[in-house]
Design brief:
This protein is α/β, with parallel strands linked by helices. The chain contains eleven helices and eleven strands. It folds into two domains: about 190 residues, inorganic pyrophosphatase (n-terminal core); about 120 residues, Diaminopimelate Epimerase, Chain A, domain 1 (Roll).
């Protein structure tokens, strides 16, 4: 990370007294952990902080210390607005006041649109939590036990337990530092990656009953009727896509989750080498080479057809150009 940019960010954070820290809609563990980690570190320095996620914190992530502090809408005035783990402004949803500029954008998505006044974007980082775990001291901030737990949760979830291709030796060293400082690894791992609600298990059952495999792609769809039948209140796939990615006969896993009659959330996961980010970008989304997402306009059936066609195209291209490496 560029030292001059870090110094600028430190100056911004140091000068501000009222700070809004926000993350993306349908927040995952990295968004939640990073918002809490940075927010609580700023509070420890005496700053007045609002931590905002437009969709709140899912029940499965409420084990993270401080999660009850997160609100769904900002109020009042702010000296500084910080966006975390968010590739573009639209992904913030209603977390920030309309028309308010983003002062500091901290992210690790290669597709980030650099929308902040100051952008700290490291596409090599496995998670925004990794960026914060490495650079909190450079930003003039200190670790507390709660900050360490929040950041380790972000690292665990975005790497799926240190299994993703972007997990580097430095990622594990940072995790070890957080563990050595008191973050409860075993507890956080179980809560974030192993524990399931009964309704999420039932949702998986609904989806797995119609899972399909063709031409190296394994996929499932989740309709609003499926979610209602399972008693599942979320609008995500309850991490099913990460499990589908383990299917031996597939190179790419997909889950399509109906949001309403005309909107579908799509999640891609891929083996190392298949670049699903390029597909997500085609549908207005983004992410990483091996893990991306998009919210696509259309009904579930037509979005499924369009997304499968575009996804199959990158596998065909890969077969035709076997020596092409994903960047």
């Amino acid at each position: 990370m560029n030292k001059a940019l870090l110094n600028e960010a430190r100056a911004l954070l140091g000068a501000a007294q009222r700070i809004l820290v926000a993350g993306h809609v349908r927040p995952d563990g990295d968004a939640i952990g990073s918002v809490l980690g940075l927010g609580m570190a700023l509070e420890a320095q005496g700053k007045a902080v609002q931590m905002v996620l437009a969709d709140g914190v899912s029940s499965s992530m409420k084990f993270i210390p401080g999660s009850d502090r997160i609100v769904t809408k900002a109020s009042g005035e702010f000296d500084l607005v910080v966006a975390l783990d968010t590739g573009d402004l639209e992904r913030l949803g209603t977390a920030i006041p309309a028309g308010r500029a983003i002062d500091l954008n901290i992210d690790h998505h290669p597709t980030n649109t650099l929308y902040g006044r100051l952008n700290l974007v490291d596409p090599q980082a496995a998670a925004v939590a990794e960026i914060l775990a490495q650079h909190l001291p450079d930003l003039g901030l200190a670790f507390t036990p709660e900050v360490r737990a929040a950041l380790l949760t972000g690292l665990l979830t975005d790497t799926i337990g240190f299994r993703t291709p972007n997990t580097r030796p430095g990622t594990l060293r940072l995790a070890a530092d957080l563990l050595e400082g008191g973050a409860p690894l075993a507890h956080l791992y179980f809560e974030a990656l192993t524990k399931r609600t009964f309704s999420s298990v039932r949702l998986w059952g609904q989806a797995l009953g119609k899972v399909k495999l063709a031409d190296g792609i394994v996929w499932a769809t989740i309709s609003r009727e499926d979610a209602r039948a399972a008693g599942y209140s979320g609008r995500d796939d309850a991490d099913l896509v990460n499990w589908l990615a383990s299917v031996a006969e597939s190179e790419i896993a997909l889950v399509l989750v109906q949001q309403d009659d005309e909107t579908v959330k799509v999640s891609w996961r891929a083996e190392d080498g298949a670049d699903v980010a390029q597909v997500a970008v085609q549908f207005g989304g983004g992410g990483h080479v091996a893990a991306s997402g998009a919210v696509v306009k259309g009904n579930l059936l037509e979005v499924e057809e369009r997304v499968l066609k575009a996804t199959a195209a990158i596998l065909t291209e890969r077969l035709q150009n076997p020596n092409t490496e994903s960047l």
